[in-house]
Amino acid sequence: MLQNAQLFASKGQYDAAIAEWRKLTTDTPNDGTVFNSIGDLQLKRNATADAVTAFLQAASAFRSEGSVLKAIAAYKKILKVDPARIEIYRHLGDLNAERGLLSSAVQDYLTLGKHYFKDGRNKEALEIYRKIVSQDPSNLDAQLRVAELCVQEGLVDEAVRMYLQLGREQSAAQQYEQAKAMYTAVLRLDPENAEAKEITSMIETGGSVTPSAARQAKPATTAAKPGDASDLMAEATRRIEEGQYAGAEAMLTQLLSREPGNPEICQLLARMHLLQGNLVVALGEYRFLAGAALRAQDYGMAESLIADYLKVEPASVPMLELLGELYQEKGDSATAAQHFGRAVEILLEHPEPGMPTLPAELFEKVQALAPGSPIARKLAPSFDPNAGSMPEPEPIAPVLEVMQAPTPQPDPEPAPVIMAPEPVMETPFRLVGAAAPPVEAPVVKPPVVEPVIEPVVEPVREPVVVHAAPPPVTPPAPVVEVEPVIAAAPPPQAPPLEPAPAPLAEPVDAETRYALGMAYKDMGLCEEAKEEFILSMKDSGFFVDSCLMMALCCKEQGRPDQAIQLLERLISDSRCRGGNAQLVRYELALLYETTGARDRALTMYQSIPSFHDVPRRVEALRLQSTNGSAHPELPASTPTSPLPIAGH
Question: To which H or E segment does residue 80 belong?
């Protein structure tokens, strides 16, 4: 059936192909890939509604089987086809929150909330804005929207609490006019509110307002009552200390039902599970809490949480890895390498089932952070008996330049260089011939090139001047001596090292970004996939995989020249070695074949003589050279299969 479906689709018989795919749903009703393929075929029939239905079925199937990233990609497809399906943003927000992509989740919820508010659907809007506040307590705009919607819905107590919180936040930021507006809103709802009256009076009389002043006024407005959150927290803490875990858990669960996502409650619950010895549950909770603190750059809290867990389970590889990431964020590469190295030692002694590549990938992080360190030298023989210290990782700017190029043509270098006249087969630069009187040019060694402010071009006999985006033509200034010269565009400006940050940017979780990029690529969303790979490549452990996947996206988009340039730069990078390097060379050779560069393809294949179907391809290329005729296209044997996700 699958072969029939593919055959019908290749002939443009989409209805017949869809019928064949639907037969597969009888045996595999929860296979999201089948529904995704049906959706793609419906789009080719211009049946948008049917495509959306199929993509919804695909997303539901992916979600039920735990393939969260594929579900996200399916929902993204729906929004591209039908942007009016605003309910999709709720699903995206929930899934992004589940994966820990909090800024993406907040953005999705904000989009949905704005639509609901615009349409007058206040109850739905309030629910969504409450979710935003629970995910991002620092989002003052969302808090204000919650307060306003609560007033419209008659939820006075909640509105008062939210306006008070906003007033405190504004007072702490010394934004007294905004704080006064919030407290005034409180007094309109609760004229006897002591905190609002006191703080408003202080602002009007010109006195300074401190956060403690606002907090001190609070007890006058809300007398403590049995069952208040503070009382329950105190009682739950006492019971945990006394080992009465069942009662403490019931209290904390009750508190969480009132305040979903409250970090203090979650931390107390995680500590209780840790003290109980429920390490599996505690590990998930501590990783989430420490990861959230790390994304918020609250390094002290993150380190405290990680240390608490490691006191009980010092050989926890996930927490050691997270501790390494913490010190990497803080800029302490040596300490980060120590923690990553400790995780590698534990994995070598006790391998993690299902993650055979994790030790090597963590070792790559050690090498990237501290290539000459004792821990790197100690671990190196376990991965390569002949390994020495690796050179420092090279910057990602050249690869980003390739991806940021507006056309498939590579970006030129920012300077002209005088060079001997010979065919330049692989240069990305534009050649401009020199029109000048003959002058004997002495042979000199290429000097160390230094940028200069004034462009100077020497008249010579035959050399070719290589320009990158030259300025308007002006007469060259003659000089006496012949020197290779670089002319830098004034003022000299370095290319951007990384893409412009997206709104609500958060610290990059490279593993999640890479996995999401793979999901987008598998679903045919190449542009979205490349955006994720550009983020994940900032982590050295994901650099090679991310660059390779970006090149394959370019290949799928019909941009082989851009893919070739990216892979050519990648194979010259010190991080591209081992099995990954073989796959990169194989893909580059395939691209050379596709573009007709047979000699270069043959040379590249010969550098990996036993990889996949290379012997067959080398033989075919040699026969072609002998016979002078084209050989039939040879299918690659799994050249583009996804690499193991670094970090797994």
Answer: helix 68-81
